[in-house]
Amino acid sequence: MGHLGTFVWLMLLASGVSAASIDSYPGSKLIGSTGSDDVVIHRLITGEVKRSNGQVTPESSDFVRGVRSTQTYEVPEVGRKGVTGKFFKEQIQSLGQLLFECVGRDCGSSNYWANVVFDQALLYGPTEDQHYLLGKLSGDRGDYVIVYLAQRATGKRYIHIETISDVAGESLLDSRLVASALRLQHRFVIESELDENILIAVKDALNEGTWPSLALVAHDQLLPTETLEAAQARTQERARAAKSKLEAIGADTKNLVAIGAGPISPIDRSNIKRLELILLR
Question: Are 220 and 262 within 8 A, CB to CB?
Fold first, then answer.
């Protein structure tokens, strides 16, 4: 089919669509898979990989918390150059939004992708043949998918897919996760009571980043006999109290407004009571 080279995709999905919803390439053969129930913090590379001060490192990255599974496929030697990449790219665009892309040498060292990012030596190929995309699918869950297509110098071609299923809760929380949620999803949701760990993570994210305009929004359902206006006033006080707690530990809140939404913006009945830190712009 000519020289296909290495294609790379990192697709960020906040969705109910998992990797199983992305069709495998026709004729490809599954040669390896892994899965784990361990909830850990994963790094998502969102920028070109460059060498700086003798170190190979991505220009930018974000972090997500969840469980990961992987699949590696061998690709048949058929079709035209770029057909495999087009097959996956069109699926991503039909299911969501493409957020980031790099091609060839703009992606940086293919050795870094194969051996550092994926820990799969068989994915190492010519740097100039890479293609990397970042996308988000619509839906209610938060699944992150990485698809990496590689051609070895021998001509053998592979597809490597990783799926990270986001896990609700505040376990393993730090400022990286808060900041990444604001950049990638424009909101960070707090479904439990504000404890010291959450406060410190949010405070550090506010102080370490540049956020032009933020809202801290409190949500809750109507109490018996309560009016909508009373619920909004009650949640307004909860949002103000949370903001005051952040200020008390040194958070920069000059661009943060506290808002009470009451019951008017539910996610579902099980987790309507929550705080949301929202990036307005």
Answer: yes
Q: Do the Cβ atoms of 171 and 65 come closer than 8 Å?
A: yes
Task: State both tokens at 147.
Answer: 């698809």
pTM of the model: 0.66
Residue in 245, 73, 229 with CA at minimum distance from that of residue 149: 73
User: pLDDT tens digit string along 154-193?
Assistant: 888 888 888 877 665 445 678 988 998 898 888 898 887 8
Q: Are 231 and 189 in contact (CB under 8 A)?
A: no
Q: How far apart are CA 64 and CA 78, in angstroms?
A: 36
Alpha helices in the chain (DSSP H): 83-95, 110-111, 175-185, 196-208, 228-248
Distances (CA, A) of 273 to 66, 193, 218, 268: 23, 10, 8, 10
* Residues forming a β-bridge with 256: 214
Amino acid found at 111:
N
